[in-house]
Write a structure and sequence with these properties.
Helix content: 25-40%
CATH architecture of one domain: Alpha-Beta Barrel
Pfam family, one: Bac_luciferase
Number of strands: 11
Low-confidence stretches: 327-334
Number of helices: 11
Order of helices and strands: EHEHEHEHHEEEHEHEHHEHEH
GO molecular function, one term: oxidoreductase activity, acting on paired donors, with incorporation or reduction of molecular oxygen
InterPro entries: F420-G6PD/mer, Luciferase-like_dom, Luciferase-like_sf
Structural class: alpha/beta
Strand order of the largest sheet: 1-2-3-4-7-8-9-11
Protein name: Luciferase-like, subgroup
């Protein structure tokens, strides 16, 4: 993994062509958007949004944050994701989680909500089997596949190219596990290519690093190349009071009208200097790839621009310059 800190951005409130074009001109390395199948508001679905971002970008990595994997039949979503990865030249990443906040979504697609974790685990295994490009026979508890081969679309070569189509990533897009609880951490350690939690304080992130590292060690897994990410709601403004008002308005009601002091632990806000100080705590806890999700109802591009141009340069790797958290033999983050 890169020996540096990188920023991505959440395309809020919806992927929009001109917004994405502006973000691609910034020192941003990725853009992300998720979505529910039956949201309570008129917002998009994860695969549809991913397709738009894939079509409307040229340079950045594009990803779901998050895809509620247990709601999807894995053979269908494997084909969709493989095709988008191929058409994007291998730029797709899959942030995934189990969901559960809207029970009616699970009822409507015939998936018992109590099975969402186990279905996600099996689906992750099946996705990887299908993305190998070889015949797959899989007889699991929830999914049954007999001698099928998934073939991603073959994209045309870029105009003027003599090297042929770029295609997708060998073995398929990386699977990045989201969540906040111990089962999600264990899933990341056993099956994920990375960890991308949300609404988590720096100290909680450090504890998650310990949990994931210990679980990986117990299963004999080497976490080399594992991505240590954080989806962070924040607002950055020249006027720090405006930024703090952004977060209070954007998240306060949704999360029980939490006091400003509590919101600040999980959603940094303020001037570039103030937000950089808060994000440095996450870097010290192990984060190397931030997804900046503007916690604001307006001028979201300004938040991303200030984050990319004035916050990111202020962040520094811990002594030693490790590309991820350094784990001692006892499994503690240093």
């Amino acid at each position: 993994m890169p020996d540096r800190i990188v920023f991505g951005a959440a395309a809020l409130p919806e992927p929009e062509r001109h917004w994405l074009a502006a973000v691609e001109r910034l020192p941003i390395e990725s853009v992300w958007q998720g979505g529910h199948v039956l949201p309570p508001t008129g917002t998009g679905e994860a695969i549809t949004r991913l397709a738009l971002m894939t079509a409307w970008t040229e340079r950045v990595r594009v990803g779901t944050a998050i895809l509620l994997l247990p709601l999807y039949q894995p053979v269908i979503v494997a084909k969709q994701l493989a095709d988008l990865d191929a058409r994007s030249g291998g730029r797709v990443s899959v942030g995934l989680g189990v969901g559960g906040e809207f029970k009616h979504e699970f009822d409507s697609v015939g998936v018992p909500i109590t099975e969402r974790g186990a279905r996600t685990d099996e689906a992750m295994v099946l996705l990887r089997e299908l993305w190998r490009g070889e015949p797959v026979t899989h007889h699991g508890k929830y999914f049954d596949v007999e001698d099928v081969t998934l073939r991603p679309v073959t994209p045309p070569p870029p105009p003027g190219s003599t090297s042929g189509p770029a295609g997708g990533q060998p073995g398929g897009p990386p699977l990045l596990v989201s969540g906040r609880k111990a089962p999600a951490m264990r899933r990341a350690a056993r099956l994920g290519d990375g960890w991308m939690p949300y609404l988590m304080s720096p100290s909680a992130y450090a504890r998650s690093v310990e949990t994931i590292s210990a679980e990986a060690a117990a299963t004999g897994r080497d976490l080399g190349g594992f991505e240590w990410m954080m989806y962070v709601y924040c607002s950055v403004r020249a006027d720090g009071d405006r930024a703090r008002a952004d977060v209070a308005s954007f998240l306060g009601g949704a999360y029980g009208d939490k006091p400003a002091s509590m919101l600040d632990k999980i959603a940094p806000s303020g001037t570039p200097e103030q937000v950089a100080a808060r994000l440095q705590e996450y870097v010290d806890a192990g984060v190397r790839h931030f997804v900046i999700s503007p916690a604001a109802h307006e001028d979201t591009l300004e938040v991303v621009q200030l984050a990319a141009e004035e916050v990111l340069p202020r962040l520094t790797l811990p002594a030693g310059g490790a590309a991820g958290p350094v784990i001692t033999t006892a499994g503690a983050a240093s």
